[in-house]
Design goal:
The complex is a heterotrimer of chains A (408), B (742) and C (165). Chain A has 408 residues and is mainly alpha-helical. Chain A has helices spanning 2-18, 35-47, 50-54, 93-102, 117-120, 125-136, 159-171, 179-187, 191-194, 234-242, 254-262, 267-281, 295-301, 303-317, 342-350, 372-386, 395-406, and strands at residues 67-70, 73-76, 149-150, 212-214, 217-219. In chain A, α1 crosses α7 (159-171), α2 crosses α6 and α13 runs antiparallel to α16. The longest helix of chain A has 17 residues, at 2-18. Chain B has three domains: 10-210, Aldehyde Oxidoreductase, domain 4 (2-Layer Sandwich), CATH 3.30.365.10; 217-290 and 339-429, Aldehyde Oxidoreductase, domain 4; 436-462 and 497-740, 2-Layer Sandwich (Aldehyde Oxidoreductase, domain 4), CATH 3.30.365.10. Helices cover 28% and strands 20% of the residues of chain B. Chain B has a seven-stranded mixed beta sheet with strand order 9-10-7-17-14-15-16, with helices on both faces. In chain B, strands 12-20-19-18-13 form a five-stranded mixed beta sheet, with helices on both faces. Chain B has a four-stranded mixed beta sheet with strand order 21-22-23-24. In chain B, α3 (78-90) packs parallel to α4 (118-145), α13 (531-549) packs parallel to α17 and α16 (637-657) crosses α17 (707-722). Chain C has a five-stranded mixed beta sheet, sandwiched between helices. The termini of chain C are far apart. Classes of the chains: A mainly alpha (408), B alpha+beta (742), C alpha+beta (165). At the B-C interface, α5, α7 and α16 of B face α1, α2, α3, α4 and α5 of C. One FE2/S2 (inorganic) cluster sits between chains C (95-101, 132-134, 136) and B (75, 341, 390-391).
Chain lengths: 408, 742, 165
């Protein structure tokens, strides 16, 4: 509570400073956009993953409704189709640019920073124009926004002004970086998931790309702190971001949506992202030796997990990569070296299911076949076998927690 | 003369033919029939191939009725339909008919169960044979009772007289009364007297299948049976250089590792042991990977660059109004696979002298011929018995699995050997439906009528089936390999790559060409509908393109060019039941219509449907689907509806998603993750089928009738929804999205 | 020796503990219901029910099944006395080749056990794990709905029977 109080005081001070943004006038004009601008806007929307937060599962594209769990409560993605009542149809270009850069909606309310305006603030005018052109040419969907479910005091919007005072300016940059950096730090907002956040939900600048989280998945570091046993290179990042990398595997969980979007953007954009991230991940004097495999010790230490693994997982994962969408050794997957077991648990419980009709990894969900204890055994065995013995704590509790969360 | 060639021992016939050791191998060839044809009208259906009545219908002294078909049950419900047909003319309950399907030792040689010919060939034969048997029995009874035959009738397995005197069939079959040659004309029951034909009799195989009965060759368990797996080369032409089997021989349960050239297999006591040993062999085997496949990205350019034989399929010219507008279009269809849910399986048993093979291949006689050739055995030392498999939809891995089992069984005489392919083997090695390209060009006159139609289709062969031993994978991999036979283009009127390449519409000027490409970069063979799937997709897409150009409603435009009465009826029925209209729908939604008569000889089928296209992703979702079908005299309407529904849903999967992927050495479509197909999440909202009965008309093949119309209806609906025409299958989300733009 | 509880009967099997249940059911216990389709958890042909949940038997080693209740197609009913769900499949003629159907029935059985009145969307979603290549999907959906209706009707009748003396 003391913290909350402090928060109210600090943010309140900011709020006093910034109160009452002006409402931007309704824009009911007919805009005509150049086809090339709309097309680039579509590519930028994919590079910014707009759909992933603004489209509900099985919902209409960009019509909002997707629940986004944050430490402060659940926020629902909003309708950004050009519907005048429920969407952003009344936004003028200026109102749209203000929302993107300053996190203020058309009528002047502050937006929660789960909408990453702290990154979008870096966007160049021409890209904001393109995004505007793209969104305004989507099918208008009448779908009312859902009310957020936030605890006090986070439900007091004006406090956000204080938040912005604290954080937003830090992101503003003026020089035009190279394309990769521009995308990664701006539109693609990689740091939103891959940088840890402080208690106010802001990315901790000093720990840039040190690893964060998204929808209860661990988002690995995108810098030299990456625990991946197989070094990431520009090429492997490109493969991964496009579909699948033979060395590291493919995206799963929230990242899978990002990759699905990147499949349709121009190759040069994805190459630029891969090059920039490749540079941030580069390690000194790295070499690609084989993944360490302590199979014998792991079997002795976790015989039950070893047996489960052999009877279930090995069918696909111990074939030296012969089964499509498996890598030569499970030990090449970064998630095994994470600080917590969440990704492993998600994968085992939920499996992998590509969108209908598309080529992609299919892994069955084991939630029904395996008990918490059995999953914990398998994880312990794999952890011992590949990551040198350091075990995660409370794995069974985590499994139970994630089960509750994912199966209503 | 036919009769003397067919000489089963009289004893067997008298004993009710329960123990049948003779073979029907030496049946008169079709050529002989054709000689006879000059003097007599031809025998109906497959009676041409096996003219003795007791090759089709036998009746024991105890009254047990057995019908024989050389066709196979492949999930199309033929077993039930044939029982209905036999029962109808014999005036018995269908369940009283014991039906034997293709078995080289027992049934007539009816070639392959393919091309939707089973009803036309086999049901016609059985129906005529049954009618003639009935009349013979009535004749015998008349003699015995001293009553005129026209005073007698057949009823519930007996011949019944006016005073209610009855003689059971079993008491009438003494002697070889049924061992006679069929007559060309039978006294068939009149359409209005039919009791069984036309009834949606529940399929006899379903209760066993839903409760765990032995239903498939996969379920066959013989005493002493052992399990085997094969290791296929790493790519099409790879050669096995070496394999160290020493450790693998000692694995639990392993009985024998069989190697002959590049053919590699392992036999073990239990199935999972065989699988474990197969995995070990896969790792141990060293291959010379020689295969060079074309670039998948340019596969159509590659096919266009291959030499082709030119065939003219249709060329007719008449006076017509001058054309004022000409449209042209090119259509593509990729390689697509059968993808049976159950990988191919066979059981074989060799006693040191003769071999028996149980298989779900579609032709037992050709299979026998091929296996006999491969093993250097005389034909009569090989017996092939059909048992059901998972749905095959054409020539899949079944024949190859049978050859595998035969080779392995010969390596371990005395023990029946069961082989099942693994999923990745089925995906990588089955012969695919060939990639195809076609070009259409047509002109409209001022009134919007088609005056000139040109169409050319380019394709590989659509059949690489046995009998040649070289058609089996295993035989090609032997130390002394067999070579596959020369690929054949197929023949009109059925056609193969050119199947349904001639439009059924009444057009004054038509020219259709078939460019047959002998070279096959990928292994291909018959896939449900053969070229009809592509040609109907192309022709019926093009009809819509022309209708749009003419400013006409697509259904009206079709009717405008269609004179065949039954075709019109089917088109009208589908349109009316669907509630067809050309009023525009909400944005992103569209309607589509298509029609074809399968092979221009089989069932008539029209499909109307609606789709939603998600603009942002290009994803196509199917809404209501309505089809109308005329299969001639409908034997089992529910069975027909089942076939059409299934055909539509399967075609939707092909049309929206499917394309075999490969790189320059190997096939990359190895499982359902790399060859995704339709799942429940995206099946249509509903599929309604209206069977337009045609009493008294011949049975028409139905099994493949829906594939083409469903594909074209989807393509037409996507155009209707998006304003963009996509002529390249599949209509994947990415392709649709690329076509409609941002 | 591993002891399995299959369809209410306890069965001792001598297969290696890492043997997937599918092969033990088919080869050792000679039950035909579960089918091999892919062995990779992608098609559902091998689906059986373990402790009320649908499970791919091709990826479930018998070692982890001691003490758990395994139900296969054979455990639901017989040809002479089919279960309501099996009967619904017969009544809807919901099969072409039928190879996928045992897995379909078992997956549907698990659904109806937990949710007697699933919506159309729930059925489609639940059944998404199982593939059919013959295109029998529409009839499978109909059969599941028919069985659900039948079971609800039976449920509705049940209390009335209880109040009778
Ligand atoms: S056989 Fe088990 S999922 Fe396919
Ligand atoms: S009925 Fe044949 S696979 Fe489903």
């Amino acid at each position: 509570m003391a913290f909350s109080l402090l928060l109210v005081v600090v943010l309140g001070a900011g709020a006093l400073f910034f109160v009452a943004h002006v409402a931007m006038p309704e824009d009911r004009g007919q805009h005509v956009f150049a086809p090339d601008l709309v097309r680039r806007g579509g590519e930028l929307a994919a590079l910014g993953y707009c759909a992933s937060c603004h489209t509900a599962e099985k919902g209409q594209p960009f019509a909002g409704g997707r629940p986004l769990a944050t430490p402060f409560g659940t926020i629902f993605g909003t309708n950004i189709t050009p519907d005048p009542e429920s969407g952003i149809g009344l936004y003028s270009p200026a109102a749209f640019a203000r929302a993107m850069r300053e996190g203020i909606d058309r009528v002047g309310r502050d937006l929660y920073p789960v909408f990453p305006y702290n990154h979008f603030t870096r966007l160049e005018d021409k890209d904001i124009d393109a995004l505007y052109a793209f969104l305004m040419t989507r099918a208008a969907v009448a779908a009312q926004n859902r009310a957020n479910q936030l605890a006090f005091p986070y439900n007091i919007r004006p406090l956000l002004a204080g938040w912005k005072l604290l954080y937003l300016d830090k992101f503003r940059v003026t020089e035009r970086p190279d394309l990769g950096r521009y995308l990664v730090e701006g539109l693609s907002h990689c740091g939103a998931c891959h940088t840890p956040r402080d208690r106010l939900g802001a990315e901790i600048a000093s720990q840039h790309f040190d690893g964060g989280e998204a929808e209860d998945w661990w988002a690995p570091p995108l810098n030299a702190n990456s625990p991946s046993p197989v070094p990431w290179t520009e090429e492997s990042l490109f493969n991964y971001l496009r579909s699948w990398d033979a060395e590291h595997g493919g995206a799963i969980g929230p990242m899978a949506q990002v990759v699905a979007g990147l499949a349709s953007v121009p190759e040069q954009d994805v190459r630029a992202i891969a090059a920039y991230i490749g540079s941030t991940m580069a390690k000194q004097g790295e070499s690609d030796g084989p993944v360490e495999d302590n199979q014998t010790q792991a079997m002795q230490a976790h015989p039950q997990g070893a047996e489960l693994y052999a009877g279930i997982c090995a069918t696909c994962h111990e074939t030296g990569g012969h089964v499509p969408f498996t890598v030569a050794s499970l030990g090449q997957h970064t998630s095994l070296y994470a600080p917590d077991p969440r990704n492993m648990i998600h994968v085992v419980l939920e499996g992998a299911h590509p969108p209908e009709g598309t080529v992609g990894a299919v892994m069955p969900a084991f939630a029904d076949a395996l008990s918490d204890e059995q999953i914990a055994e398998i994880i312990a065995y794999l952890r011992a076998r590949f990551s040198g013995g350091a075990q995660w704590e409370n794995v069974e509790d985590e499994i139970a927690r994630i089960r509750r969360r994912t199966s209503p | 003369m036919n009769a003397p060639v067919f000489t089963p021992s009289r004893r067997n016939v008298l004993a009710g033919a329960l123990i049948l050791s003779f073979s029907l191998r030496a049946l008169p060839s079709l050529a002989q029939d054709q000689d006879n044809a000059a003097s007599k009208p031809p025998l109906p259906g497959s009676l041409k191939r096996a003219p003795m009545l007791d090759a089709w219908i036998r009746i024991d002294a105890d009254g047990v009725i057995t019908a024989f078909t050389g066709k196979c049950e492949i999930g199309q419900g033929i077993r039930t339909a044939l029982m209905q047909v036999a029962a109808e003319e014999l005036e018995v309950d269908p369940h009283a008919v014991h039906l034997i399907t293709a078995d080289t030792a027992r049934t007539a040689n009816e070639g392959f169960t393919s091309g939707s010919n089973s009803m036309k060939d086999s049901a016609t034969a059985i129906r005529n044979a049954a009618a003639q048997v009935r009349e013979i029995l009535i004749g015998v009874a008349a003699e015995r009772l001293g009553i005129a035959a026209d005073q007698l009738h057949a009823q519930s397995g007996a011949v019944v007289g006016p005073d209610n005197r009855r003689i059971a069939y079993g008491d009438l079959v003494a002697g070889d009364v049924l061992h006679v040659t069929a007559q060309p004309v039978s006294k068939l029951k009149s359409p209005d007297a039919l009791k069984m034909i036309g009834q949606s009799m529940p399929r006899v195989d379903i209760p066993g299948k839903v409760t765990g009965g032995i239903a498939y060759v996969h379920d066959l368990r013989l005493p002493g049976m052992v399990h085997a797996r094969v290791v296929r080369p790493s790519s099409y032409d790879a050669r096995l250089l070496s394999v160290d089997t020493s450790g693998i021989e000692k694995m639990p349960g392993v009985m024998k590792i069989v190697r002959d050239g590049s053919f590699l297999g392992v036999i073990a006591e239990r199935e999972f042991q065989a699988i474990a040993a197969m995995h070990a062999l896969t790792v141990a085997a060293k291959w010379d990977v020689a295969t060079k496949l074309p670039d998948e990205g340019n596969i159509f350019g590659f096919i266009e660059s291959l030499p082709a034989e030119e065939h003219v399929i249709a060329d007719k010219h008449a006076d017509s109004a001058p054309g004022t507008r000409t449209l042209e279009a090119v259509y593509h269809r990729p390689y697509q696979m059968h993808g049976s849910i159950g990988p191919s399986c066979a059981v074989a048993s060799f006693d040191g002298d003769a071999l028996t093979v149980w298989s779900h291949a579609q032709g037992m006689f050709p299979l026998r011929k091929g296996i006999a050739e491969m093993l250097h055995l005389p034909d009569e030392k090989v017996r092939c018995i059909h048992m059901e498999g998972a749905g095959c939809y054409g020539h899949n891995g079944a024949d190859d699995a049978a050859a595998d089992a035969a080779l392995l069984a010969c390596a371990l005489p005395g023990r029946p050997v069961r082989v099942q392919w693994m999923r990745e083997q089925e995906h990588q090695w089955e012969p695919y439906g060939p990639a195809m390209v076609s070009r259409a060009r047509a002109s409209l006159d001022i009134a919007g009528n088609i005056v000139d139609w040109e169409y050319e289709v380019r394709s590989n062969t659509h059949s690489t089936r046995p009998p040649g031993a070289g058609q089996f994978l295993a035989a090609r991999h032997l130390e002394q390999p067999f070579k596959p036979g020369p690929p054949r283009p197929g023949e009109q009127p059925d056609g193969a790559g050119d199947r349904n390449s001639v439009p059924l519409y009444a057009l004054p000027n038509v020219r259709v060409g078939y460019q047959f490409v002998p070279d096959m970069p990928l292994r291909v063979s018959a896939l449900r509908g053969l070229g009809a799937y592509h040609n109907i997709f192309a022709i019926e897409s093009f009809m819509d393109e022309l209708a749009i150009a003419a400013g006409a409603d697509p259904v009206e435009f079709r009717l405008r060019h269609m004179q065949e009465k039954r075709a019109r009826k089917v088109i009208e029925t589908a349109a009316q039941r669907f509630g067809w209209s050309s009023a525009s729908m909400t944005e992103g939604s569209g309607r589509g219509f298509a029609f074809a008569r399968y092979k221009n000889l089989g069932a008539y089928c029209a499909v109307a449907l609606e789709v939603d296209v998600e603009h942002e992703s290009g994803r196509v979702r199917l809404g209501r689907v309505v089809a109308a079908v005329d299969s001639g005299q409908a034997v089992n309407p529910n069975g027909i509806a089942n076939q059409i529904q299934g055909g539509i849903v399967q075609s939707a999967s092909w049309t929206l998603y499917e394309s075999v992927r490969f790189n320059q050495t190997r096939i990359l479509s190895q499982d359902w993750s790399t060859y995704p197909i339709l799942r429940f999440g995206n099946v249509p909202e509903s599929v309604d089928v209206h069977v337009v009965d045609a009493p008294g008309e011949p049975f028409l093949g139905t099994g493949e009738a829906a594939q083409g119309p469903a594909a074209a209806a989807i393509a037409n609906a996507v155009t209707n929804a998006t304003g963009t025409r996509i002529r390249h299958l599949p209509l994947s989300a990415a392709r649709v999205k690329a076509a409609i733009g941002v | 020796m591993i002891t399995l509880n299959v369809n209410g009967r306890s069965r001792d099997v001598d297969d290696a503990p890492n043997t997937p249940l599918l092969y033990v059911l088919r080869d050792t216990l000679e039950l035909n219901g579960a089918k091999f389709g892919c062995g990779l958890g992608q098609c559902g042909a091998c689906t059986v029910v373990v402790d009320g949940k649908p499970v791919f038997s091709c990826l479930t080693p018998i070692a982890i099944l001691q003490g758990r209740k395994i139900t296969t197609l054979e455990g639901l009913g017989t040809e002479d006395a089919p279960s309501p769900l099996q009967r619904a499949f017969i009544e809807e003629q919901a099969a072409q080749c039928g190879y996928c159907i045992p897995g379909m029935i078992m997956r549907a059985h698990a659904l109806l056990t937990g949710n007697a009145a699933p919506t159309d969307a729930e059925i489609r979603e639940h059944m998404n794990a199982n593939l059919c290549r013959c295109g029998t999907h529409m009839r499978i959906l109909q059969a599941i709905k028919r069985a659900a209706r039948g079971m609800q009707a039976a449920d509705a009748r049940a209390p009335a029977q209880e109040v009778r003396p």
